Amino acid sequence: MARNSDKNAQIREERRMQILDAALTTYISFGYNGTDMNVVAEKAQLAKGLIYYYYKSKKELFTALFSWMFEEGYAFSDTLLKNTKGKEPVEQLMAYVYGVFGANKANPRMMQFFIRVPFDAYAIFSPEQWKDGSMKSDMHREALTKIIGRGISQGVINAVNPSSAANSFWTVFVANLFEYSKLMSGKQTPQKNEIDILRDVVRFCFQGLGVDNDLWNLCLERIISENKESGGDH
Asked: What average pLDDT does this structure show over 31-40?
């Protein structure tokens, strides 16, 4: 009996993830208001009635979707920051964006999701409910702020407000990465190899911090070399 119970629980979890995955794909294309539950069911290859068995309403489904993606994004960012700990500031920033670039290459939907979220979060959550997602986003930005602050103290980053610089750095990176995501989705044809595209993506991010071109290029080449040695693919 316990074995059957475990198997049923596994099936339920697989169904939930199947539905969430379909909802994510649909949300990226149409946003919250434009998402039709019939389309979610079609993407999930499940009956619409089964979708409503697991999630009683569209809002309940999207509450689960957003919560899941916030956790995924936070866990990824936290792991990446921990793995780059101990590096010099510019190299840590480069390693961080390099990791995000690689993750976006593997799954562009994560970045596309987080670009859409600010327009729909308050349709899903009340201001009180949104605090958790906002807090995790702030923790990510606070980490970047600390790295930039160290770079300023070492004289390799211009003396600016670290928090404002972190916001600008991340905004520019996301905007450039979103353009790259269009290439990945087939909406445009890439004219450059991946390393040159990555260099274009991060160029204005580091120039905006006043980082010397030779320094950030050196950090990028070092990370590319390390990744090749460890068997990475980008």
From this structure: 95
Task: Give the pLDDT confidence of 54-87 residue by residue, as tens digits.
Answer: 999 999 999 999 989 988 888 888 898 898 888 9
pTM listed for this prediction: 0.81
3-state secondary structure the chain: CHHHHHHHHHHHHHHHHHHHHHHHHHHHHHHHHHCCHHHHHHHHCCCHHHHHHHCCCHHHHHHHHHHHHHHHHHHHHHHHHHHCCCCCHHHHHHHHHHHHHHHHHHCCHHHHHHHHHHHHHHHHCCCCCHHHHHHHHHHHHHHHHHHHHHHHHHCCCCCCCHHHHHHHHHHHHHHHHHHHHHHHCCCCCCCCCHHHHHHHHHHHHHHHCCCCHHHHHHHHHHHHHHHHHCCCCC
Q: Which residues of 121-151 are buried (b: 16+ CB within 10 A; e: fewer)?
A: beebbeeeeeeebeebbeebeebbbbbbbbb
Sort 217 into a burial class: Cβ within 10 Å, 0-12 / 13-18 / 19+.
middle
Give the C-alpha separation, 37 to 65, whole Å. 14
- The tokens for 171 are 């905004």
154 lies in some domain: yes
Residue 38 in any domain: the answer is yes
CA dihedral 162, 167, 173, 179 (to 10 degrees): -160
For residue 138, the enclosing domain spans: 62-229
Residue 49: give its domain's CATH number: 1.10.10.60
